[in-house]
Amino acid sequence: MAGNRSTLVLSVVVAALAVLPLTGVPDHHLRLVAEILILGVAVMSLDLLIGYGGLVSLGHAAMFGVGAYAAALFATHVSPDLLLAIPAGIVAATLVGAVMGALVMRSANLFLLILTLLLSQMVWEVIFRWRDVTGGADGFRGIPQLTLPGGMAIDSGVDLYYVAGVLAVGAYLVAASFVNAPIGKALVGTREQPIRMTALGYSIPRIRLSVFMVSSAIAGAAGALYPFVNLYVGPQVAHWTMSATLVIMLVLGGVCTLFGGFIGAAIYLVFQTHVSSYTDRWQLVVGLAFVATVLFVPRGLGRELHQLLRPLGLGEPRVTAETDKKGTVR
């Protein structure tokens, strides 16, 4: 019953997203919502690491940035076809995530955070210095519009909004499937009882590598669409400050709630877009909102919404790691 209600809520959200352009929302507002959806997907992918795996990473921007540059380069030099450029970004980000996951999968806590930060900065250094390919500090310009398989260009805010909406729904379904699968519950088990999971025969490094690859693929999908919002991508998308921004969005929206990433991204980007038109110190406003969230809503707005909806059976399913007598996670 709870699963049916959750499906109903998802259907209502998708329907609301579908009819939003019909309400007369200006094109530039639709582009803002598309950017919120894209960054929300990136934050959701980070939530798989931090929220469900307890793996605090400051290197997630590397996968996001690699996905962005790979898709932009592919669209420019090979084909702007949506069904080719986006997968190119996903593959590139997954490969980087696999390498990073292989290097850090035996680390934890502070060592994991520092390692992911260093590896991410190495990726940024390559992007920043490889001027002939990436444009260096000036960024990569001249990106063509994405096209559908039939050749129609995705050149308006409405088109981009719908593509971002499809991406968000698809990424959410993938992330939810992973979380509710046995490996997702095993991941939660490694977060809560790593010694017991090892004693039961589970390979914690292998589980961590798996979540790194899935998280990287989702982040790469978001990054692959990101350059086509403004037809430009700069090295800041792979910088550690971008990783920190994603963490801030995650805390604002709520850790361990997949939809919380979209809430956090919306709060941050709305402040960035509208508050910055009144003052250059909009980051101070974001900082105050972040401090207020930590003090008064420590679980994040998404977790509070989750708690309100759970008695009605409308929240996301609660993920727990239980083992039977044979030690199998279920």
Automatic annotation (TrEMBL):
Membrane disposition: Multi-pass membrane protein
Keywords for this protein: Cell membrane, Membrane, Transmembrane, Transmembrane helix
Keyword Repressor: no
Transmembrane portions of the chain: 31-50, 57-76, 82-103, 110-130, 160-188, 209-229, 241-270, 282-301
Extent of the signal sequence: none
UniProt entry tagged with the keyword Cell inner membrane: no
Pfam families the record matches: BPD_transp_2
InterPro entries tied to this protein: ABC_transp_permease, LivM-like
Subcellular location: Cell membrane
Name used for this protein in its record: Branched-chain amino acid ABC transporter permease
Organism, as annotated: Azospirillum oleiclasticum
